[in-house]
Amino acid sequence: MRAQAEKALRRLAAALPGLAAAALLAGAAILLSGPRTVYGNPTGEVPLELPDELGPWRAERVYYCTSNQCARSWLQSQLPGEPASCPECGAPLAGISLGEINLLPDSTPIFRRVYRRAGHPDIMATVVFSGIERRSIHRPQVCLVGQGNRILDEYTRPTRASLADPDATAPLRVLEIAHADLDPATGKAVSQSLGIYAYWLFNPERETVHHLSRFARMMFDNCFRAYRPRWGYASISLGRDPSRPGQWEEELDDFLPRFRPLIDGVRARLDADRAVPTVLEGFSADANVYAGTNAPTSGPSGAR
Ligand SMILES: [Zn+2]
Fold it and tell me: Disulfide-capable partner of 105 in 61, 101, 133, 220 (CB 3.0 to 4.6 Å)?
């Protein structure tokens, strides 16, 4: 009898962590299912403009062909007159890629420019913002591989953060990647291009280079503070010349001190919306909208 009771107790003890987790989840589901008010204005306009000039760098817009057969991308300077259709196949052009239009949650704003400078590799700068929907920000480790890249190395690199103070740095997550160049006739890889993909994540209060730490912070702010601002994901990509191994680091250290203030600015302006209330009812994905018109967005209404 006593042995049986002890056995039952032991079983209960073993099951406790699981039961506690289940109760917590059920509690959270009940808490999150009713109408509730969150703060931080996750549906408002993102007050960001990527400028036409950034020191010696000149910006160009990028346009993407919306035919999945063609899927070419074009720089503004390659398109005569008002860019409307693909010079190669005639399909409509969009400000973001077909993958972004289709795969990201609707109403994800995407800011992008290619910055060019004679004698330097082109630098593509992209800033994507999550809203009520948090899936807008993907781990690039997954996306890049899905787009046919191989990740050769990955690490956090302190990168120059200020032109005035050469010792000021901020961490940047760097992925060294290789992309196979395919022969269009045979589909076989004929060569490979090397590149750098670097990023960091931010909200009005914080910056991080770790997706997991963004996730933990997001959960905490959402559950305990009803604070749900947009998170941004700034990424920089450029080609890597194997004959000039250190060049990309010099380019990042030159470009980032000019680019970061744009992000600091948008963080401060988003922070001014900290007290703006948004009432969520039912599934929050329905409430995911973009109030601005200053960037192309994913989904059927976007791609301006
Ligand atoms: Zn095309």
Answer: 133
Mean pLDDT, the chain, as a whole number? 89
Question: How far apart are the CA of 135 and the centre of ligand 1, in A?
Answer: 28
Neighbours of 36 (CB within 10 A): 13
**172-186, 216-230, 254-268, 276-290: which range is least confident on average?**
276-290
According to the model, what pLDDT value does residue 304 have?
A: 47
Name residue 20's amino acid.
Answer: A
Non-local (6+) Cβ contacts of 40 within 8 A are: 204, 227, 228, 229, 230, 270, 273, 274, 276, 278
How many C-beta atoms surround the C-beta of residue 298 within 10 A?
25
- Whether 128 contacts 80, CB under 8 Å: no
pLDDT at 156: 98
Q: Which residues pair with 177 in a beta bridge?
A: 151, 195
Ligand 1 midpoint to CA 218 (Å)? 39
Q: Which residues surround ligand 1, an ion (CB under 5 A)?
A: 65, 67, 70, 86, 88-89, 91
Nearest in space to 196 (alpha carbons), one of 147, 148, 251? 251
The DSSP bridge pattern shows strands 36-39 and 53-54 to be unpaired
Q: How is residue 284 written in tokens?
A: 């929050």
Three-class SS state of 224: helix
Q: For residue 187, is it left (φ>0), alpha (ψ between -120 and 50) or beta? A: left
pLDDT category of residue 4 using cuts at 50, 70 and 90:
confident
